[in-house]
Specification:
Layout (H helix, E strand, L loop, with lengths): L9 H10 L7 E5 L3 H8 L6 H4 L3 E9 L5 E7 L4 E9 L2 E5 L3 E10 L2 E10 L12 H20 L1
Antiparallel strand pairs: 1-7, 2-3, 3-4, 4-5, 5-6, 6-7
C-alpha cells in the first residue's frame, strides 16, 4: 500500500507555507508574459531582485551548497544588512535571515504567469511575521516586478 501524493505548483506551495505563519500575507498577480521571461527577472537575485523588492537594494550570493541552497548577503535601501539562507529553483525563491523572510513563487497559467510573494519582519523566537505593512509591500513588489518584466520585454 502506498500513501497518496499531492503535487503542488510553486504558488500553491508558497500559499501552504505562508498559511502556517501568523501575520503572513500572500500577494498574487498575473503577469501577461511567459514564465521564462518573468522568472528571468524574478529569479535573478544579484541583478534584478533589488529592482522590484521594495526594501532590498542589492543582493550578493556568497556561496552555493551541494544541495543547491545559497547563502546571500542583502542590503536594504536604509543601509541595514542581512545574511540569508536561500532556496532558489525555477519558479521558487525562499529567503530567510534571522529577522526577515521573503518568499516568491511563479507558475505558468493560460493568461501568462501567476506570481505570488510573501515576506516581512520575523518575530524573534516565533514562527510569525510583524503584520504591519506586509500587504502593501507584497502588492508593491509584484507591481514593480510586472513593470520590470515589461521593461525587459520591450
Amino acid at each position: 500500500m502506498s500513501w497518496p501524493v499531492a503535487e503542488l505548483d510553486a504558488v500553491r506551495r508558497l500559499r501552504a507555507l505562508a498559511s502556517a505563519i501568523p501575520g503572513a500575507y500572500v500577494a498574487e498577480r498575473v503577469i501577461a508574459a511567459p514564465f521564462a521571461v518573468v522568472w528571468a527577472v524574478a529569479g535573478d537575485l544579484e541583478r534584478e531582485f533589488g529592482t522590484f523588492e521594495p526594501d532590498m537594494r542589492d543582493v550578493t550570493v556568497e556561496s552555493a551548497g551541494p544541495d543547491g541552497r545559497l547563502v546571500a548577503r542583502a542590503r536594504s535601501r536604509y543601509g541595514m544588512r542581512a545574511r540569508f539562507d536561500v532556496d532558489l529553483a525555477p519558479g521558487w525563491c525562499w529567503m530567510q535571515s534571522r529577522f526577515l523572510l521573503v518568499g516568491l513563487a511563479a507558475t505558468a497559467v493560460p493568461e501568462g504567469t501567476l506570481v505570488a510573494q510573501t515576506g516581512g519582519v520575523r518575530v524573534p523566537g516565533r514562527a510569525a511575521l510583524v503584520p504591519w505593512g506586509v500587504r502593501p509591500a507584497g502588492e508593491k513588489a509584484l507591481a514593480r516586478l510586472a513593470a520590470r518584466v515589461g521593461e525587459r520585454a520591450s
